[in-house]
Write a structure and sequence with these properties.
alpha/beta, Rossmann fold, globular, about 15% strand, 15 helices
Length: about 425
């Protein structure tokens, strides 16, 4: 097939997933023998406000209209050069005018939009999902959200690229656990249990080290910047908290919203109280190209599965399968992650990876695998073999194409 791809949120790979999804998707599609036509429209201007679901400013709307027209022109040019069999995108509402899908549809091209934050940020893709031919979602339990807007959901999980995530030889494993990822949701609560129990651990990612130096009085009182007609409030500033309070009360009402504001305040206080626990274990952020080396250098790889139900503190914590659940086993790790029902559809828990339900179970299992390297090695090898066999992006695309009925695609594996 000849596939037009618009999946990079920035032409420059240093920005906003500029190379993440193309790095995941393109090698697999080429391995399957498909010809790719990549959009050269830079989505970064629209990516800068992709956290906005609706109610765009006139300036934001103009940016979206411009990127939409540029992409449509690219597709028309590609079609003049030869048949285009599929349009594959990773659009938020900010990136593309949903009406543009009607123009693409008139060209006779099937439309698939991928999105991997459907559990807690569905509103940011709802308008796009309603207009695409197929909405590819990674989270099993997101289906109902898509159906509510009249979308046609297709559930195909994420995978891993074995050319990027793979075993690394020649690195001695330290008798330690490790975690790679930013400090988010209740991750620090789980990590606090690990640290307090004396489990040796290395922590990689933003937010775990010493807090940033307090800004000067001048920066505190500086008028917030503006981007495309929308005021940008500095994180942690009085104005940002005021906007958050106003939004919460407006969305949820005085009683419910007020209760949530109290929960958010308690969450921030507890987060601040926990911060000193992690400073001596924090190793800073690392580029994704170094992740395999980090996994190879530690006996156990930890992961945490919870996200905020609506993406903001104070909402319900929901566990779901993450990209790391495929990348880490592909690197041949002894992988220990938060339990979800969905993860059992992809691994034999206890034999290929292991999971935990409580902080006590997390600590007990981390200690067990650190104290029993033979058991860790069995889990590591079995998880690696399963990931390499069943959880590559090549397998995911075979499943996707089979599920949407594209000619010559493999049948669904489920």
């Amino acid at each position: 097939m000849r596939i037009f791809c618009a999946v990079r949120h920035s032409i420059d790979p240093k920005h906003y997933y500029g190379g993440l999804w193309s790095g995941n998707f393109y090698p697999a599609l080429r391995e399957l023998g498909h010809d790719l036509v990549e959009s050269r429209t830079d989505l970064l201007p629209a990516s800068r406000f992709m956290h906005i679901a609706s109610g765009f400013t006139p300036e934001e709307t103009a940016v979206r209209a411009r990127t939409t027209e540029q992409i449509l022109d690219e597709v028309r040019a590609a079609q003049r050069a030869g048949p285009v069999h599929l349009f594959l995108s990773y659009f938020y509402n900010s990136h593309f005018d949903p009406a543009g899908f009607d123009d693409l549809r008139r060209l006779g091209i099937p439309l698939v939009n991928f999105y991997c934050n459907s559990i807690y940020q569905f509103a940011q893709v709802a308008a796009i999902a309603a207009k695409a031919d197929f909405s590819w979602h990674a989270e099993r339990d997101a289906r109902a959200s898509y159906l509510t807007v009249g979308a046609k959901p297709v559930w195909v999980q994420m995978g891993a690229n074995p050319s990027v995530y793979h075993p690394v030889e020649g690195i001695a494993r330290a008798p330690k656990a490790c975690f790679v990822g930013q400090r988010y949701a209740d991750r620090d609560r789980w990590m606090a249990a690990v640290v307090r129990a004396g489990v040796p651990v290395n922590i990689y990612g933003p937010g775990w080290g010493a807090p940033p130096v307090a800004p000067s009085r001048q920066s505190k009182t500086h008028t917030p910047a503006e981007y495309l007609g929308r005021r940008i409030h500095r994180a942690g500033s009085v104005s940002s908290y005021a906007v958050a309070v106003k939004t919460t009360i407006g969305d949820e009402g005085l009683a419910k919203g007020g209760s949530r504001i109290v929960r958010q305040a308690r969450y921030r206080r507890e987060s601040a109280r926990l911060s000193p626990l992690f400073v001596s274990f924090a190793k800073g952020a690392i580029p994704f190209q170094k992740i395999a080396e980090v996994f190879a250098a530690n006996e156990v790889c930890l992961n945490f599965s919870n996200v905020w139900a609506d993406g903001r503190p104070g909402s319900t914590l929901i566990p779901h399968v993450r990209l790391r659940d495929f990348e880490a086993p592909m690197c041949r790790t002894c992988y220990l992650t938060g339990h979800t029902d969905e993860i059992t559809e992809f691994y034999n828990v206890g034999r290929e990876i292991d999971t935990y339900h409580t902080p006590e179970e997390l600590v007990d299992k981390a200690r067990f695998y650190l104290a029993n390297p033979d058991a860790a090695e069995k889990l590591r090898e079995a998880g690696y073999r399963r990931a390499l066999c069943d959880h590559t992006w090549k397998r995911r695309f075979e499943e996707l194409f089979g599920n949407i009925g594209l000619r010559g695609a493999a049948k669904s594996v489920r």
